[in-house]
Amino acid sequence: MFRRKEPGRVLIMVLGLTLSLVLTGCGSISGAVKSILAEDTFPTLPAPEIATYILDLSGSTNALAQLNALNSGIDDFVSGKSLGNPFSNPKVKPRGLSMQFITLSSGQAPRFLLVSADTSQELYSWMVENSPNTDQAEPLWNGFIRAREIIYSDKIYDDMQSCPNKVIDIFGLQAQSTEALRFPAIQICKDALKTARSLEAIRNFNDNPGIAMGSDVFGAVKLAVNNMNRASEQFGNATTTIAIASDMVDENPKRRLSKILVGKNIDACSLGKELSIEDFGDQLQLSNFKVILVGLGNTAMYKGIIENNRKFWNCYFQSAGAEVEEATDLAGY
């Protein structure tokens, strides 16, 4: 994001800029000089980690158990740790999280944005612009993280009139005026409120989807990949993760996968590679993706399909270049 300059070169640039501004009659040089020094002194904010969680609502899986498996991962995102930390060693990446669903036609299911990495970018830009040095910037960023965690856990975000004032109080003594701190305080309140409203909308959808339930796994995967590709382009070099809480038993009538995989002599891995090339080509389009398969065995379908189904989806994603893991829940992800 920022390129470090050699100290001698920075000093020459600063002196040159100062002389230029004086000769041209410009009265204020602090902002221009600071912008050069900031490139050399402020640690960069790492590229974010963007994740999509996919929850299976079909009748072949225990949706509640799958949701519980996702919750440990969701909690880590929404609590406030998603802002990341450019000052820690090692640096912590900002994180963004959305959620979608497997239904009869997954394209009809809504997508919910729980946490956006945009907030980290906005707060970082504000910090660089308004902090004269890292000695003041680091405690300010730590204040952002602490405020986001407290505001969310204490549900202070509901009142957008009082929330910013409480956030500023949480910041503590900073080398900034109360008025100056109002912008990051508002952003933190908005971020927490957005998360809370999205979680409520997810619960409402889960209780009453209003659309037909089914197992369009391929449709859900296609949507997730498209969304992750757009997010990666937006943030640049973002790491992308798709976590799918599902038995992965697809009932797409065009492919009839659940019927095929019942066969004992079927080469499930070869079939996975074949359909992967059909969907993604042979150019390793998912080479920057991590795919986590959660609860593959959580199924009410014929048990004889489980191992072939596992082989199929592992080979399907790996053939497209993705890193594939299996997990029983998302603790630690």
Highlighted features:
333 residues, alpha/beta, six-stranded mixed sheet, 6 strands, elongated
What does this structure look like?
The chain is elongated and about 70 Å long. Strand 1, helix 3 and strand 2 (95-102) form a beta-alpha-beta unit. The chain is an alpha/beta fold. The chain contains eleven helices and six strands. Helix content is 49%, strand content 11%. Helix 6 crosses helix 7 (182-207). A six-stranded mixed sheet has the order 3-2-1-4-5-6, with helices on both faces. It has helices at 7-23, 30-41, 63-78, 118-130, 134-153, 163-171, 182-207, 217-235, 257-260, 268-280, 306-319, and strands at 49-56, 95-102, 112-115, 239-245, 289-294, 323-327.
In short:
The protein has 333 residues and is an alpha/beta fold. Helices cover 49% and strands 11% of the residues. A six-stranded mixed β-sheet has the order 3-2-1-4-5-6, sandwiched between helices.
Q: Secondary structure elements and their pairing?
A:
Layout: H1 7-23, H2 30-41, E1 49-56, H3 63-78, E2 95-102, E3 112-115, H4 118-130, H5 134-153, H6 163-171, H7 182-207, H8 217-235, E4 239-245, H9 257-260, H10 268-280, E5 289-294, H11 306-319, E6 323-327
Parallel strand pairs: 1-2, 1-4, 4-5, 5-6
Antiparallel strand pairs: 2-3
Largest sheet: 6 strands, mixed
- The stretches of 5 or more residues where confidence is low (pLDDT under 50) are 1-40
How many beta-strand runs?
6
Query: What is the N-to-C succession of helices and strands?
Result: HHEHEEHHHHHEHHEHE
Biggest β-sheet: strands ordered side by side in the sheet = 3-2-1-4-5-6
Mean pLDDT: 84
- Rounded to the nearest angstrom, the distance between the terminal CA atoms is 26 Å
Shape by Cα distribution = elongated
